[in-house]
Write a structure and sequence with these properties.
The protein is mainly α and 110 residues long. The chain has five helices and no strands. Helix 4 packs across helix 5. The longest helix has 29 residues.
C-alpha cells in the first residue's frame, strides 16, 4: 500500500466519522426540538448552562487538589455549605450572614 492510498483511506474514515456525527446531531435536534429554543419564549430560562458548569468546576478543583473527601459525610457537608454560599450569592445576599442565620435557626431564602 503506497502513501496515496493510505491518505485516501484516512480521508474516507474521517468523512465517515463526520457523517456519523452529523446524523447523531440531526437525531438529537429532532428529539429535543420542542425544548431546544424554550429560552426564547420564557425569559427566566437561561440559554446556556454555564452557571451549572461554574458550580461544578469548583468541586472538580477540590477533587484535583485534595483527592476528593475522606468520607461521604465530609463530601455531603461540603456540598451543603457550598449550596448555601452559591444560593445566597445568586440571590445577592451575604453568604456569611446566611450561614450565621442557619446556626441561629432563622429562616433562609423564604
Amino acid at each position: 500500500m503506497n502513501h496515496w492510498t493510505k491518505q485516501k483511506s484516512k480521508a474516507k474514515k474521517y468523512s465517515q466519522l463526520l457523517e456519523r456525527k452529523r446524523r447523531k446531531l440531526i437525531r438529537r435536534l429532532k428529539k429535543y426540538k420542542h425544548t431546544l429554543l424554550f429560552f426564547i419564549h420564557y425569559f427566566d430560562i437561561p440559554c446556556e448552562n454555564n452557571f451549572i458548569k461554574r458550580c461544578l468546576r469548583m468541586i472538580i478543583g477540590k477533587a484535583k487538589t485534595s483527592g476528593w473527601f475522606r468520607n461521604d459525610k465530609s463530601g455531603e457537608r461540603f456540598g451543603n455549605i457550598m449550596s448555601v454560599i452559591k444560593t445566597s450569592k445568586l440571590r445577592k445576599l451575604n453568604p456569611f450572614k446566611c450561614i450565621k442565620d442557619i446556626y441561629e435557626s432563622k429562616a433562609l431564602f423564604a
